[in-house]
Amino acid sequence: MTTGPDDPRTGPHADPHGDGSARSARSGRGEGDGRRNRLDLEPDTVERDLVKLVLTVVELLRQLMERQALRRFDEGDLTEDQEERIGLTLMLLEERMAELRDRYGLRPEDLNLDLGPLGPLLPRD
Question: Which residues lie in Basic and acidic residues bias regions (predicted)?
Answer without folding.
Answer: 1-20, 28-43
